[in-house]
Amino acid sequence: MDRISCLAYLLYNSSENQDIRETAIQLLNGDVSIRDLKKNTAIKATLVTLESLLKKRRVNMNQVRQFVEKYMFVEV
Q1: Could you give the CA distance from residue 59 to residue 32 in angstroms, rounded to a whole number?
Q2: Which of 4, 6, 10, 70 has its Cα between 20 and 30 A from that of 55?
Q3: Is 15 among the domain residues?
Q4: DSSP assignment, residue 1?
């Protein structure tokens, strides 16, 4: 899985806040960028922490795949 998918998965699971979960789905679908999220002070600290988890490879790729299958929108 790519970095964006992993970060979106981690962001989605990091909070019960519906706004943050919607932001994670937007990140997955390309509606918002990591650069945009880092400008948002409410999400920036969480995002930095999640990036460090990703660098340490502490992500279950099977769960990321299931998240992507469930929330990625594909236009035909």
Answers
A1: 22
A2: 70
A3: yes
A4: -
Range of the domain at 62: 3-71
DSSP string spanning 30-74? TSS-HHHHHH-HHHHHHHHHHHHHHHTT---HHHHHHHHHHH---
Determine the Cα–Cα distance for residues 21 and 18; give it in Å rounded to an integer: 5
Has residue 31 been placed in a domain? yes
Decide if 40 is inside a domain: yes
Residue 2 pLDDT > 80, yes or no?
yes
